[in-house]
Amino acid sequence: FDLEDNNLWQIKAERQVGNFIPPRERIRYYVIGYLRKVGKANFDSIVTTILPLLINGHRPTRADIADVLNEVAISYDSVNWEIKDPSVLAKQGILPLFVTEKREEYEMPPSTAHNQHIYRLAILCQKAGFVPYIGKQERNDPMLAALKPLTRLNVKAEPVQQKRIEQIDIIWAQADGTPVWAFEIEEHTSI
User: What is the pLDDT of residue 103?
Assistant: First the structure.
């Protein structure tokens, strides 16, 4: 991703978001998006609408779509499907897909550009339902400390490896501290 002049992250040229998202998550995204748009729909209309959107490398089967549909939607009449109540989805751990429609405004606290990038990633991390682990050195910045990041990860490693892990700028982790994704901010190197 590249940070544009307008302070919005953009996907690098010749890349698509789908390149980074596991197939099941992509199916879930399109099923939820379609059902949010139309309210109720039968299985065939769901399949014919979302299949063309899932052409990036992995072609899901009808069973794959049905499996995701049973997870995120309910059919009261055995014909039409509608999204489950958000409270039910929250209990299933699917709530992060229901970000607010209204754009939130926030003020960027003063800090170094490097730490502001980490701050943005930490906010995204929390909105995606994860907990940020911020590198040991960066954690001393009051702006980042205010986010109440994890101070320990659920990782078994040798002491030397543990020291290296502590230096990673930001890691998105599950609530139990299990790492999911790690990010290093590079301002001067093209990656």
Answer: 53
